[in-house]
Structure formats: C-alpha cells, structure tokens
Design a protein that fits this description.
The complex is a heterotrimer of chains A (598), B (212) and C (70). Chain B has eight helices and no strands. Chain B has helices at 2-27, 35-54, 62-66, 71-97, 108-117, 122-142, 151-176, 182-205. In chain B, α2 (35-54) runs parallel beside α8 and α7 runs antiparallel to α8. The mean pLDDT of chain B is 91. With 70 residues, chain C is an alpha+beta fold. Chain C has a single domain, classed as Alpha-Beta Plaits, CATH 3.30.70.20. Chain C has helices at 14-18, 45-49, and strands spanning 3-6, 24-26, 32-34, 55-57. The chains are: A alpha/beta (598), B mainly alpha (212), C alpha+beta (70).
C-alpha cells in the first residue's frame, strides 16, 4: 500500500514537474527561481576587434552608414544583433519615399513647410529637408543593389558590403558603449551562440539600433528594445522624444500575429512612394476606444469629433483630415509607409471601414498562412512602447547626426532627428530617412575618425564591462527576464497608460517601474546566451519605460501623438519645445526643455 | 493459375509501393501546402518507391517472378519504371525550389544555391552523391550498348552502383524527407533492406552454388 | 504555437540567421529546432528565407498576450 502510494505520488509529482517545465519553457511562470544554467560557469572568452568606424545595427541605417563610412576611407565594421537586412523593422518596411521636385510639383521648401505644418512645429526642418534632398540618390543606390527585386533584403544588403569587403559580425548583441576621456572609444557586447564577450575599439561609433518597444504583440519589433538609446544614455548622451507614441492598433483575434495582421504586406517587394503629407495619429482610435469602447463597431461617418463623448479630440491641423480609405496609390495600400506598415488608422483593420476579414485578400500567392478566421475586432497597443519614427532617440547637436558625446553618432530610428515630427507626416519617409541619415552619419563618423588617434579600450574598463555583461549568467538565482518583461507589459500596455495619459495613472505606473528598476533589474538571471540577451533587453525596456512616463508627465499639454486627458489642449506658450533626457551627476534621470528649431 | 498469380503480384506491388506510401503520406501529420507543392511531394515519394521497386523487378527476385512472369516482360517494366523514377528523382531538387517562383521569399535560384552550399549536412551531401550516382546509372543504362562492356560486366556494375545508390538515397530521404513518419521510415527501411539483400544474394550466394 | 512545425529541414541554418528574435537553433543533429517559442513574433521571415519551405507557422502566440484594449 505504501508502495502503491509512493508510486502514485511519484507520478503526480513528475506530472507536476513536467507541467511546470512545459510552462517555464514557454516563458511563463517562474518569476524568481534558481538559475538552471545550461552553460559551464566561468567558461567565458573574449574577442577583440579594432576599427575606425563601428556601425551598430544591420538595418537600413546601418547599411548606408557602413557603406558611406567605408567610401569615405575609414576602416569600417558592422556588428548586428541579428542578420543584415533581417532584423529590426527594416525587413518589414516596404515603402520608401523618393522626393522628386518635378514629380511632386512642389519645391523642397514647400515640402518642408507642409511637413512642419502637419507636425505642429515638432519637426526639425533641417532633417526634414535632408530626407527630401537625398532620398532619391539613396533609392537609386538601393535599386542598383537589387533592393526592389525581392521581399527579403539580406541578399541586396550584402551586395555593397561584399563588394567593399566590409567586415560584418552578426548575432552579437551590443550592451555597452565605452566612453573614456570624454569621448567614445568603442562598444562591447556578447555572442548569442557562445559565451564570448566582444570588444570593439573604435574611433567613432554610429548607433543604427532602431527604436524599440515593450516587445508588444502585433508589431514586428520584438528584437528592438531601445538598446542603443539606453546604452548611450548610460554614458551621458542626451535622449529625446520619449513622450510620443506610435498608436498602431492590432486585431483582437491572434493579436500577436504580425504577419497575418498586416495582410500580405510582408510578402511584397518594396516600392517607392512620392509626396503625400498626412497627419496620421493612430492615437485617435485609442482615444475613441477609451471614450466609447472598442471602435471596431464604428460605421463610416462616426469617425468624427462627436464620437469622443465628453473627451476633447486630439488636435488636428486644418486641412489634414484623417485619410478616408481610398484606392491605394501606386505601390500603396498598407505598404505605402514601410516601417509602420499600415498607416495609423489604416492598420490591421483599424479604420471602421475596412472589413475585418482583410485577411482573405492578404494571402496572395504564398501559402502557409494562418487559418481563416483572422480579423475580428480591433485592439490597441500593437506597437506599445514605440514612438513615432525618428522622433525618439539621441539628440543631434548638428545636421550630421552627431550626439553630445564626441565620436558618437546615430542614424535612423536611433536618432531623435524629428525628421517627420512627432506624428506621421510623409508616407514612406521612415525608411528613406534611415537611408539618408545612415549615409550622412557614415560620412561624418569617417571624417571624425581621420582626425583621431586610435585608442584601445583599457583593460580595467574591459573587466568591469565583462562582469556586467555576464552577471545574469553567474547569478545562482534571480528573476526570469521573460517574467519581468511580462510584468512590465502589464504595467505599460493596458489601461491606455501611454495613449490616453493622465497624471495619477502615470504616477502609479512610474512607481511600479521604479520598483522593477531598483529591485528586479539587478536580479535578472540567465540560463543561456539567449536568456542573457533577454535580460539585457529587459533592462533597456525598464529604463525606456521610466523615460516615457517621466517625459509624458512633464509635457502638460496635448500635441501630435502625445495626448493627455488632463491637458487636452495645445499649449504653444510653454510647449513649443522638445524634452531631452539625460543622466544627472548623481545617476538620476534629468529632463530639460529644448525649444523647437534650436 | 498463372494469370491469377500475375494479377496477384501486380496488385501486391501496387499496394506496397504506391498505395501504402500514399496512405502514409495522407495519414501523416504534415502541414498541407499548395496543390503544386503537394503534387511535387507525392511525385517524389512515388518516385522514391518506384526506385525501391526496381530491386524487386530484377533478377534478384527471380524466384518469385519466374512462377508467373516472363523475365523479359519484367525487365521491360524495370526499364520503363527506371527511366520514370530517375527523371522524377533527378528533378526533385528543382521541384522543391520551383514553387518559390510564385512566392516572395528566396528565389528558386538562391534556394538551390543555399541547398548546394549546405555541405555540413551529411544527409544532404549523401543526397548529392546519390543524385550523381543516379545520373550515372541512368546514362549507363541508356547507352549500355555503346559502352563496350559485356552484358554481365555491365550488370555487375549496375547492381553494385544500385546498391550504393539505394543506401545513400535511403539515408538521405529518411533523414531529410518532409513526410517521414515512423511508419514511412520503417516501410522504406524494410523495402530497401529486402531489396539490397535480393541483389546481394545473386552475387554472394550464387558463386558458391554449383554451376548448372 | 507560433512556428508550428519544421519538416523536411536540411540544416542549412538560414532560418536561424533570419529570425530577429532568436527563436530557432540548430539541434545536435544539425536540424532547425523551435528552441525559444515564447519569443516568436510571428513575422514569417524564417519561412521566407527557408530554401526548402520546411517551416509552417500558425498565428497563435505561445504565451498569453497583453493588449491595450480588447
């Protein structure tokens, strides 16, 4: 009998263990737990590289940064978390803006003015002008490399890299920028394939690390966690734009299925877009959902201010009414704006006019798509944690994508260039802007490097960084990064925290985020290199969440993609300014205003 | 009596080499894809089983065959099916990548290049070797008369090549095949082993037997 | 599941490289294996880069999803 009992007990136990293991393997459960390391402890090695210009990131900006830095005569190296052209948002960006004055029927000045009008002054006209001036040249280069011939970009991206013999290191996650003697001296990170730390000594560094989010469901940015921004912030760089929000909605059925949510867009070859300036919020659907419940029930015509009930609608400049769905422009439809695939309000079934079964037409020629039945009603927050493209990131100190740290540059979504302002204005400019800024930063960083003597990262610094990198691997127990990320999502995504902002809720969220920062961040564990990457990503997301809440609390007005229910009006007297964030002398987060156009 | 036996043998062949693999293909828990891809898949599977069938439509199987069939008829079928399966299996790498032409991912050419570049996969390299061997077997069969070999020499070479080929092809297919359920793998191994033994029997056992 | 099944894998490793979120790894037999399913963002890049079309994907996320409103 006792034998029988113990057998049954054993079966129960093993069943429970199996169940727990299954759940744990799916990234749930196990907040705090023992670290079941799968790697031999202490068995870490180090790789050293030295270059003139280090490009971090393998998307559109990184491609051009590397090519132009090389062409300007600098020894160049690209390091990417993933594969060139197959990580970040670039693989999903299908429209690229190409400005042609003749075709557009407007001059560059007119174009810049129109964007500024739509952006309610939030744009930086220097960078707006840049994209118009250089987009066509970049598009032509891309065409030469075969970019427009395939829906997947690795091959065309590899062409200029191979032709120039530019060194490329993939699957290495950069976690640290190194600053010594008040200038950049390189970067460090680790391989996700082996327990190896990577050190890159460089004369100048270009961050092409994209933007980020809270690993949201429905937007293909789960490898983007504002890594570049936070690394730069940690060494004293100024960061801007954290109060703006991308408001893309998703579908309520399988909201995490980005591919399915975007119809067949990911399968399309890229194409160019011409001038078409909008004021796409994406926010309005969120505000309306807050006021009325899920607006998927809306009928055409309901999409006006009266349907906000008692809420004041977000301000929209005269003459820029929300786009009604119309026949797509050439190369248009959802893909017209590359990186933020369906424009706001035209996202995966976001406007009330698009039937939710857009899925049907989505499948195109491919097979293997999801089963029928996608669609249904619409939910918010598909890109939660991301701002408007080019509106958040390092603060540029000039028109050369240079940051306040000597030798540190940023391009694309890693640079807070405000190229398009704090709202979506020019369709397709996001991808074009990354190409244009990448090229400018590449040239500038190469020029800077020529004037510098090479300096190696000191060994003391290396040791310090190496121990920081591997710390989660060495912990005997700790919080699982997946669990902390889910907790963070639970704080930052539901309840319209970042979409319909109000002081009390944001303060509550901030208190919780500070708790994660102070008590969870130092105790993240990692069992293998994959989890180590998750741990560092989680750290970055926590800091980014704090920035977003602090900046959103500070901006006591509503403008573009920042909407406060307690301050619903534009406040031009106090808020014709951007908010910059930097690390104070005591390590605290400091915020300051920088007037527009300065 | 002979007719019944003949019919029985034919039915058995059809059942084992066509219906059974088809059934296993249908019953397997594999994602269904476009009709073109499914067509290519089932063609390849049948091609592979036709290849296995060759060993049973040969001198090695004389004992069973002689009871009801004319050897010349059997060899005629051996030839016909041989050319059919060789064509299918020679084409199968292309059939795998061809549907990409209609899709937006890698191009068929790039896909093929990737496949050919994957030399660290043993099963894949064996497949490539088997493919070349199959080409040689096919060509030496078509041009047998022009080779200047005696029929017996040619037959030995043909048999040896076929045995090497079937071993490589079986490892390749069971390791990399898309529709490889346990049942399918067992069936292939059973048939391949029997087939190889049938041929070996001719070359290893026969010489020891007293000459007639 | 997100990435549902990998059948007919030849072990070329294209999907491993193509995955932005490091979901797939080659196992000890040299074949692609869905190693970290919770991190799959269901973007289909692995499928599009696969030379033998071995990967099938379903739209369900492997872990519960958090959305703004539903």
């Amino acid at each position: 009998m006792s034998k029988e009992f113990s057998r049954r007990q054993f079966l129960n136990l093993s069943g429970a263990t199996l169940g727990a293991a299954a759940i744990a393997s799916m990234g749930m459960n196990s907040g705090w737990a023992h670290n079941n390391k799968t790697l031999p402890v202490g068995d870490t090695s180090v790789a050293d590289y030295s270059t003139d210009v280090l490009v971090i990131g393998g998307g559109m900006a990184g491609l051009f940064a590397a090519v132009k830095a090389h062409d300007a005569g600098a020894k160049t190296l690209i390091v990417s978390k993933g594969r060139l052209g197959s990580s970040g948002q670039t693989p999903f960006a299908k429209g690229i803006f190409s400005f042609d004055a003749k075709e557009a029927g407007m001059s560059i000045d007119e174009f810049v003015n129109k964007v500024s009008y739509s952006a309610i002054g939030t744009n930086n006209p220097v960078y707006t002008r840049q994209v118009a001036e250089h987009s066509k040249a970049r598009v032509e280069e891309l065409r030469e490399w075969g970019f427009f011939d395939s829906a997947i970009y690795n091959k065309s991206f590899m062409r200029p890299i191979n032709e120039r013999n530019i060194e490329l290191i993939e699957r290495v996650t950069i976690t640290h920028l190194v600053k010594e003697n008040d200038r950049i001296t390189g970067a460090a990170g680790f391989s996700i394939d082996e327990s190896k730390a990577y050190f890159f000594s460089a004369k100048s560094v270009i961050l092409c690390t994209g933007a980020g989010g809270f690993k949201p469901n429905g937007f293909p940015i789960n490898d983007l966690t504002h890594d570049g921004t936070i690394m730069a912030y940690n060494i004293g760089a100024k960061v801007t734009g954290k109060e703006w929000n991308d408001g893309h909605p998703g579908r309520s059925t399988n909201p995490a299925a980005c591919y399915d949510g975007w119809g067949n867009m990911f399968e399309q070859k890229p194409s160019t877009t011409s001038v078409g300036i909008r004021h796409d919020l994406g926010m309005e659907a969120n505000v309306m959902a807050y006021a009325n419940g899920n607006p998927s029930q809306m009928r055409p015509g309901m999409n006006n201010k009266s349907s906000y009930s008692s809420l004041k609608a977000p301000y929209r400049p005269e003459g820029l009414q929300e786009e009604q769905r119309q026949s797509p422009p050439p190369g248009g439809d959802g893909r017209d704006d590359k990186r933020r695939p369906p424009r706001d309000g035209q996202g995966p079934g976001s406007d009330g006019q698009r039937p939710p079964q857009q899925k049907a037409k989505g499948k195109g020629k491919g097979d293997n798509g999801g089963p029928p039945g996608m669609g249904g009603s619409i939910v918010g927050g598909s890109s939660a944690g991301m701002a408007i493209h080019k509106s958040e990131g390092l603060v540029p100190i000039n028109d050369k994508c240079e940051s306040n740290i000597p030798g540190l540059y940023a391009a694309g979504d890693a640079l807070g260039s405000y190229m398009a302002g704090a709202i979506y204005t020019q369709i397709g400019s996001s991808l074009a802007g990354s190409a244009v800024q990448g090229a400018i930063a590449g040239k500038a960083a190469a020029d800077y490097a020529t004037g510098q003597k090479g300096s190696k990262i000191s060994s003391a610094k290396k040791q310090e960084i190496e121990s920081e990198i591997f710390a989660p691997l060495k912990r005997e127990a700790g919080y699982s990064p997946a669990w902390v990320t889910q907790t963070l999502q639970g704080i930052m995504i539901p309840n319209f925290v970042l979409y319909v902002k109000k002081e009390s809720l944001m303060k509550a969220a901030l208190a919780y985020i500070e708790e994660l920062r102070d008590h969870h961040m130092p105790m993240l564990r990692a069992a293998d290199m994959h989890e180590l990457r998750l741990a560092h990503e989680t750290r970055h997301m926590i800091i980014s969440a704090e920035m977003k809440l602090r900046a959103s609390l500070m901006r006591k007005e509503s403008r573009c993609s920042h909407y406060r229910i307690d301050y619903p009006d534009l406040d031009n007297e106090n808020w014709e300014a951007w908010i910059n964030i930097y690390k104070g002398a005591n390590g605290d987060m400091q915020l300051e205003k920088q007037p527009f156009n300065s | 009596m002979k007719n019944r036996l003949r019919n029985y043998n034919r039915l058995l062949l059809i059942a084992v080499f066509i219906l059974l693999p088809g059934l296993l293909y249908l019953l397997g828990d594999f994602p269904r894809r476009t009709w073109l891809k499914e067509l290519f898949s089932i063609l390849t599977i049948w091609g592979f089983f036709m290849m296995l069938m060759q060993f049973f439509l040969s001198r090695g199987n004389q004992k069973s065959i002689r009871q009801g069939h004319k050897m010349s008829q059997v060899i005629k079928w051996h030839k016909v099916l041989g050319y059919v399966f060789v064509s299918i299996l020679l084409l199968h790498p292309f059939m795998i990548v061809f549907p990409r032409y209609y899709e937006s991912g890698v191009t068929p050419q790039d896909a093929l290049n990737t496949i050919l570049a994957t030399t660290d996969s043993n099963a894949l390299v064996l497949g490539m070797v088997a493919w070349c061997l199959m080409l040689i077997i096919g060509i030496t069969s078509i041009f047998r008369n022009k080779l200047g070999l005696s029929y017996k020499t040619w037959r030995v070479i043909h048999g040896v090549f076929s045995i090497i080929f079937i071993i490589l092809a079986t490892i390749h297919a069971t390791n990399l095949g898309r529709h490889m359920s346990t049942a399918m793998i067992s069936l292939i191994y059973a048939l391949a082993t029997t087939g190889v033994l049938l041929i070996l029997k001719i070359y290893i056992l026969k010489p020891k037997a007293p000459k007639l | 599941m997100s990435i549902n099944k990998i059948s007919g894998c030849i072990g070329c490793g294209e999907c491993v490289k193509a995955c932005p979120t490091d979901v797939i790894r080659l196992n000890s037999k040299g074949k692609a294996e869905i190693t970290y399913p919770a991190d799959c963002q269901i973007c289909h890049l692995c499928r599009m880069y696969c030379p033998v079309d071995a990967i099938s994907i379903t739209p369900e996320k492997a872990i519960p999803v958090v959305v703004s409103w539903g």
